[in-house]
Amino acid sequence: MTDTTKQRLQDIHEIASKCDRCGSCLLVCPVYSVNSKEACGARGMVNAARALTKGGIAPESEILESVDYCLLCGACIDVCASKVKVPEVMLKVRQHLAHLSEKPFGFTEPEAKQFEQAFANLCERNAALEQPSVASDRKVAYFFGCQARLGSIDTTVATLKTLHSVADVELVNNECCGLPALTRGHVDEFVEALKQNIQLYESAETIVSDCACCSDTLKKAASYLSDDPEWNERAQAFSKKVVSLSEYLAKTGYVPQAQTEKITYHDPCHLGRLQGVKKAPRDLLKATGNYVELPSADACCGGPCFFPTDYPEASEALLEKKRANIEKSGAAVVATECYNCLAQLKKAAEKSGGKFKAVHISEVI
Fold first, then answer.
1. How far apart are CA 347 and CA 357, in angstroms?
2. Fold of the CATH domain 109-248
3. pLDDT tens digits, residue range 142-152?
């Protein structure tokens, strides 16, 4: 066993051992709410992680199956008396057992081509936008995420149009933020993408991301290079530059457009809970003139990364709860600031039969 492996197992043990097994997490764990199996709840997953560090208690394949079911939403941390960092320990266990998984995490060949072509398309659309002169020296570099590239770029264009009103915007042909690889436990691939992005944004003053998954991953990226003397300081400087779209707009004093339709807001787990950004998007939407709060707004929609394809039944069950709450709010529009969440919410909107539509926050402010 290498020193790196020993240290990783020690880290897992230190975090998992803080759990006193009280079960408070089971009251809020989304996947436990739709499955009700101990191994599928936060407590069961932490116990599996603890078993891994002791060795010989459970087959590693079964441990991986347990921790792979975690949404990484962080809801358990909110109610945990010991503040056990469950998402962190789950990622470390996945990293330790990544060699057992055959689940894909990279792009297919058509997706890779679309990823690259999307940047050229965005540059063309951006050039056609009216770019008003900004009465300030603010400059931002936009981070163009994978889900934005692989879907319709109309939403991204709406983001750029908004940013152009408050700052000079630079487009960068960045790499993926690395979350897909990280989610699967492939940290080396994540770090490789991170280093490329650090170099690409070295001269940027501020990096704005309109996807919660990207902004959260990039803000925390420096921790993965903390032991690398060549990259540590550069990684820290990079992560400090990253802000979410709503954070940035709130700081600049951006004034949203008035809207007549009733709007509500879904908190992406990676933005509201994991970054603590809750007030900024709500303030922006309230300024549109017709905002209503969504019941259980921070409940996971079941859309993180690979979860909808890996566990479609659980994902659909969580989305059904979200759809019911959106309809209960009476809103005609539900907005969010995450492309994974947006894809899920659009499915819910379709199932609602036209009772509401789902949009990115940039499309209504």
1. 10
2. Glutathione S-transferase Yfyf (Class Pi); Chain A, domain 2 (1.20.1050)
3. 999 999 999 88
